[in-house]
Amino acid sequence: DADVTQTPRNRITKTGKRIMLECSQTKGHDRMYWYRQDPGLGLRLIYYSFDVKDINKGEISDGYSVSRQAQAKFSLSLESAIPNQTALYFCATSAGNLLGTQYFGPGTRLTVL
Amino acid sequence: AQKITQTQPGMFVQEKEAVTLDCTYDTSDQSYGLFWYKQPSSGEMIFLIYQGSYDEQNATEGRYSLNFQKARKSANLVISASQLGDSAMYFCAMREGRANYGQNFVFGPGTRLSVLP
After folding, report:
1. pLDDT tens-digit series, residues B41-52
2. Does B97 touch chain A (CB under 8 A)?
3. B95 contact A CB<8A
4. Could you tell me whether strands A4-7 and A31-38 are parallel, antiparallel, or unpaired per DSSP bridges?
5. What would you measure as the largest C-alpha separation in chain A, in angstroms?
6. How far apart are CA A90 and CA A104, in angstroms?
7. N or C: which end of chain A has fewer CB within 10 A?
8. What is the rounded average pLDDT of the residues B60-67?
9. What is the greatest pairwise CA distance in chain B?
10. pLDDT tens-digit map of A51-107
């Protein structure tokens, strides 16, 4: 089984709808992240959480919110989706150790019409 | 200013040849980490190799090695004996600061590598 899972894997929605993307991990890591990937821009950080009570904004948090329901679960919400939020969304986790290597889920492809 | 620069949007290499993917970075931190990830057409992000700023030896992982030149702030990925399965996007990333005290993790725009038979 995959260490980091994301649901759904693909989603098509309409402008104005509320969308939630979910991430679960079995790696036992404290830290979780949400990124979006757009062509030619690499990955950009939306939100990150170092533990259940710690939530931080990343580079592009406007239009998004997150919830850390448990150590293993981190969800991303788009309260009112807009077309320029069409992207590939990744969840990642890392341990709070010297390396800080991030391990990624398979991604969620979101299309907002 | 870009913290991670990958100047090669696309690269071609012949199967079994070696290839170098360039990455330069910008940071004022003394402690940082550099990473390379592979993204095949299926979309997942696969961690390849890590280099710490205090590591004196260049990192190696199988056919991957990282050519770390600290003074030049470069962290190039070298893939030896390219295989068709190496065709993918490759991202260079940097963790600024000490990971166990919090971190800022940034990615470059990526290089698309195509391995020719």
Report:
1. 998 999 999 999
2. no
3. yes
4. unpaired
5. 42
6. 7
7. N
8. 96
9. 46
10. 899 999 988 999 999 999 999 999 999 999 999 999 999 999 988 776 778 899 999
